[in-house]
Structures are given as structure tokens and as C-alpha cells.
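Researcher: Quick one. three chains, 881 residues in total.
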Amino acid sequence: MMNNEALKELINSWFPELEFWEEGSEFLNIEVAPDQLFALMRRLKEDEQSSFDYLYCLSGVDWGETLGVIYHLESTNHRHSVVVRVQTKDRDQPTLDSVSSIWYTADFHEREVFDFFGITFSNHPNLKRLFLTEEWEGFPLRKDYVDEINMIIK
Amino acid sequence: MEDTTVKSNFKSEEYFINMGPQHPATHGVLRLLLTIDGEIIKKVEPDLGYIHRSIEKMCERDSYQQIVHLTDRMDYLSANINNEAVCLCVEKALEMEIPERVKVIRTIIGELTRISSHCLWWGVMGMDVGALTTFFYGFRDRELLNDIFEETCGARLTMNYNVPGGLMFDIHPNFVSRVKEFITHFKTKIPEYDRLLTDNVIFHKRTKGVGVLSREDAISFGASGPVGRGSGYSCDVRKYHPYSALSQVDFNEAIRTEGDTFARYSVRIQEMWESLSIVEQLIDNIPEGDFRIPTKAVIKLPKGEYFQRVETARGELGVYIISTGTKSPYRLKFRSPGFSNLSLLNHIAVGGKIGDLVATMATLDLVIPDIDR
Amino acid sequence: MSSALSITGNIHDWLYGAMPEWAASLVEMVLIALVYLGIFAIAGLFLVLLERRIAAWFQQRLGPNRVGFQGLLQTMADALKLLSKELTGTNRADTFLYNLAPYFVIISSLMALSVFPFTQEFQAFDINIGLFFLIAVSSIGVIGILLGGWGSNNKYALIGAMRSGVQTISYELSVGLSLLTMVLLTGTLQLSQIVEVQKSGWLIVQGHIPAIIAFMIFMISGTAETNRAPFDMVEAESELGAGFHTEYSGMKFAYFFLAEFINMFIICAIATTVFFGAWLSPFGITESIPVLGVFWFMLKTMLLVFLMMWFRWTFPRLRIDQLLTLEWKYLLPMNLMNIVIMAVLVWLNLTIKF
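Model:
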């Protein structure tokens, strides 16, 4: 078990340019650039000290200007947690690296994010619509999604 | 790797078969695209979305009180635990001090919900491996629990008993005595379940060594609940992140190391005993006090991110709220146990027979609205 | 032909007295056919009701009890409902085979019914190869299932049909061999003669240990041959929907359904005839009232039917490879050993006779 301070120091020693914060959240949050995502994630999983082997939540978020993914990680050995956030400014062709080769569970969760947010995950083994039909237009969980028939706005 | 099967000059041909969306073994509108060679499964590809209601999108426009009502339409078999998860998350964000009475009642009802869910699962599990009688035995005992729920809050399945700040009503005066009656009754019934199904030789043959999931894969696939614990992966949220009154009680985490279908089955049977024991410890000590502390009519969570993990009957449910300080969440994500558990189906079912797939799916205990949300 | 028909001598004599021989023979055949169709329909409907009531009893519920006294007319009502239902089918099904299949199944079970000695005087067709005829005819039914599964143009039906084929071919061996074990004891295949032999003790007593083993094997493989749980791979509703009859509706479905129950009755009736003395009463207590033979025959058969229903409502289903392992690796070698033991027993005259 490492506390947030120790985790921050450890991760900062690998990737110095990351942004850390703890305000408004119970976990240690890390902001990572899309090009460093995969390297950071693999390090977090494989390093003995961190060993974040359990990806328990993967959520896509639309922040208005940016689209991104939030990864909640936990270590089953040390029982410490960390939250990794990645975002991309490109709303037309958002592309992030897939982490499904690190955690198998990301396979389905990334497909869900692709389905609802339209974020493409490169190197994903089977990236296609999971819930919606192939011909569905738009990405429903984006904030700018409009469907005048099915959505009830109050 | 050497192929040990008999070499044959006959060419076999793989073919596709659609299991579902209407199929007795998928327990709902799950569609599996199977690639089969004779009876042997080569690939399982789930196709989801037949009952997707986009609850997460609906949450973005609803108030926090309303969200609670949507959650029991997800995993309807552990509806009360889902309600509790959202309430706990909201209460955590508001930093509310919840009365002890509420915590204890929530835990009791949560554990009863777990038993009720496992009863239904046991009945259906038996039916999936061909023993039809189990279905009625499971439902017989589940009915008693539903009666207790009905008396408590007026609903039998989608209970909506929790509200942010406490409970909707106080418990019924008969609640304690009826729960005690149920405990005595159910203690004689679990051995009956064992006699009917667990100890059956054919059942052992059908389940042992079938659908084996290793511990590493279980963690990597994000398996939780009995599926993870059947693989020797200690993942009980009630132990690691206790909520409500669970830190006051003493119980064992049911764990089996084999990782096969029978291990997952045994874990659930063991869990019924553990839940009974939790209820037994709490039922006599429900503290006096308020059953709810009033909240504002419009709840506005402070800006920030809140995560609450609870253990439903299927595994770990996560409620992730991103709030910007308005009356509804900016983004609400449900990390549902069934979704992760389904993703490992292809991994463990390949190489088995059609009958194995059905038995394996039964022990994953999938509830489709939970996956489709 | 006429010598084989020993059903109620009086009618027989009267017919032959009143008509020329060919006409009498013809009328007699039609009469017998009608009687057996009646037995078939009533037994089928009654067994369905019995199954439902027994299932209800096992499952702590009531079962059908509203239509008629204790629900006796329930299955009749169901049959009428099925009769009025639309006969659906799939596109591009092999229509000829698809329509032919139910008749194969139902005719084979009807033919098998004809050789049973319900009582001394009540047997339509007492041929000297009775047992052989039974085994042969009862395996025609599987052709109907294969045709139905193939003709439906449905993959589930096809898997069910293939399972059925492999299952019936395997378990037929055990059915045949276990009956053959008993034939060693009786020295005849003719059913009336087999009953005659049992007047000095039922065969299960005469042949003691090997006979009991043979009986057990017969009941197991008989259950498998009728495709009932725990060997209902053919239907396996949680795996294949409804198996080979997925695409059948209305009366065609009812034919399959009825035939399944009649087959169960047939298997139990064979067991009664070969192991439990057919219509003979225990210790000859009602020997002076021959009509009661029917009662004893039905009582014994129904007890065995109950046993098979008990199997169905308590056991889980086997997997197809386990099903075949059970037959080829356990039942068949045991059966072959058993025949040798029985032969030695008969040779050394170690049977028990009263």
C-alpha cells in the first residue's frame, strides 16, 4: 500500500511532465498526454511497486471542447488506486491508444466508449459498434448529440 | 503443440449459429454469435444493445433523487444495492452523516437482496443444466423475501427504498420477526439445495473443469463478484471498501481456487450462508434513531468527482459522478459487473461444447439490463 | 395372419361365423387398428397429464386440476387447441421430409404397441420374434427425428437431430443386449412364451443378480432411447431451444409430443413384460380372475413410468460426450460381461425357480 504522495513521487520519477492533483476527488489524479498514454499505462501495470493490475472503470467523458477517457486503476496486491485522465482536442477524429493489450477488460469498455463517444482506439483488436447498430449516426453520449425524437430535454 | 486427437481425413466445416436474442439460455435479450465446429465452440461474440436505454445519458438531465429510480432498472435482481450505491455516492459528496439505523437497515436489506438474487440464480442454473425442479425451489424461497420487501416498502422487485439521506420509510413493525422467520426457514433450505443439485454426480460432471478462468485472467478481465472469487481472486468490495454497516459485521469472503464452473457455483452457495450470517448479526441490533435526514429538495453536489463501489449480487458496481455543481451530474458512469463478466465469456467458452457454454453462462449470472444499462 | 390375432376369442369366432373369411379378416384388422388407436390416444393423453401432475408434485405446486375431475380433460383440451393451431414452417424447408417426419415417429410407436400381452387374451400380434420385432420397430422412430431435423432448415433442429441419431444408435446396443441377456433365460423371443416362462417366478427373480443388472442397464438405455431427461440431448431446451421439433407447430408438434410419451410407455411395458412377469399377479393371487391381468400389467408399467418421470424431474442433463462415454465405456462392456454371467448361470442351472 502506497499513499498518494508516494505514488505521485514514483510516477513522477518515470514521467516528469505529468500533471497531478487531488482536489475534488478521493484518488490521486494524473493527466497524461495521448502520446504518453500507452507507455504510462504499461509502466503502471508492470512495475512491481505500483502493479496496477485491475482496471475497474473506464469511462469516456465529453468535456465540451475535449473528449477523453478516465481510467480507474487499482492494485490487487497493494490495494492502492489511481485515476488516469487523457483527453484529445480533436472532436472529429479523436484517436487514443488502446490499452486492451494491457488489461483485457478494456476491450469491451473501449468498444463502449467508441460506440457512445466516437473515440477511436488504435491497436484495438475488434473495434466496432457494440450496443448500437452499424448504421447509427452520431455518438449519443456526446454533449452536442441531438435526437429530437428520442431525447426528452427538460 | 502436438494434436492428440485422432487425425481424420474428413474435413469439418465451421458454421455460425445465432444464440439469442430470444433463447432460453441467454436469460434475456443477449445475442451471441457462435462459431461452431460440430458441437465445439470456436468463437463467441456477444452482440449487445437490445435493451439499451441509455441510462447514463438520462442521468445527465435528471436530479439525483430521480437517478436513484433509474438504477434499479439496471440489475433488477439486486435493485436495492444499486439504489444504495447512488445514495452512498451522493451522501459521500454532500458529506452527510447518515444515522446508524439507516446503515444497518440498508445492509440487512442489501444482504437479503443478495440472497434473493442468488436464489433465482440457483433455480435458473439448475434449469440451464437440465434439472427443471430447482427453478421452483429457488423461487419458493425467493417469494418469502419478496413478501418481506413488499411489506417493507410496497414493491417486490424494483424497490426504490433508498433515497439520498436515508430510507424512504421506516421498516414495518413485522420486519424483524419475519426476517428471523426467514433465516430459520432458509437455513434448512440450503442443505436441500445441496441434496438436490450440488451433490448430484451428473452435475459435478457437467460443471467441474468446465469454463476454467485463471486468477490472472480474472483480474485482467475485470471479473468481480462470485466470478472473480471462484478463480481465487479476493475481490469482495464489502471486505476491501466496506460501506454502510458492513464494517461492523464479521463474515468470511467465499473463495474457491479452481476457477471452473463448479467453483463459481460453490462460491454463490457459500455466499448465501455468509449473507444469512450478516443478517443474523444485525437483525437484533437495529439501533433506534431517524430513518432519514432531510435533504434539500434540489440536491446540488459540490464540484468534483465521486466514486462509490458496492458489491451487488453479481459483482462490483461502480458509480462515478462528475459534478460541476449543478442539480444533475455532468457525467455519470455505471461500472456494471455484468459487462466485465460478459467480456470474458469468449475466453473461457472456446473449446467447450454447446452444453458447456450454457453451464458457463449460467454461472456468470448475467442480467442483460445490467450489461445494456 | 388370423392365427396371430388372439384378441378376445368371442368376437373372433363370431366374425368368422358371420362372414366369409377374407371379409372377417379385414373387419377384424380394422377393428383392432381402431382399438389400438384408441389405446394410443388415451394412453398418450393420460401420460401427459400424469407427467404434469407428477412434475407438479415434485416441484411443490398443484399442476393442472381444473378441466374435468382432477384435470383429467386438460390434455384433451390441449390437444384440441393444438388441432386448431396454424401449421407453420420455414422457408426453403424440405417440405416433403418435413411433413413426413411426424408420421414416421408416430407410426413406429404405434406398431410397437401391437405386440404387448396386456393380458392372456389381449394381444394383437403374437409373433415368434416378438422381442426382436420390438427392438427393430422402436428404432424406426429415430429416422423420423432425423428427417424432421434435416427437413426443418434450422440449425438448432439439425444439431438436435444429429444428437438424436448418435444417441439412439449407441443406446440401441444396450437395449438389445440387455434384452438378449434375458432371452438366454427364457429361450424364446415370443412375448407370450416369455410370460409363460415367468409363471415359475418373474425373470428378475429367476435370473437374480445378472437380471437386476440387465434391468438397470435397460432402464438407463431405455430412458436414453426415448430421449428423456437426463438424456434429453435432442431437445435440451436450454441449449437448443426445442431441438428437432423447433419448427413444428400445431398437430405435427403434438404427434412428436405424443410419440415421446408412448415411447416411454413402450419402454416400460417391455421392462414389465421381460422382467416383471407382464400380466402375472404377484404370487398368483388373482390367478382365478384373468381380466385383472390388465390391471397388473398397467400397474407395473405405471410404476416404471413413474420411475422414469422421477429421473426427469430430479436429474440435470448430461453433455453429449458424457452420454456417449457412459454408453461405450461403461454400459456396453458391462452388458457383454453380464451376458456371459447369465449364460454361465443358465448352463449351471443356478436360476431361482418356484
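Residues 103 and 206 of chain C are 39 Å apart (CA to CA).
Researcher: Thanks, that's what I needed.
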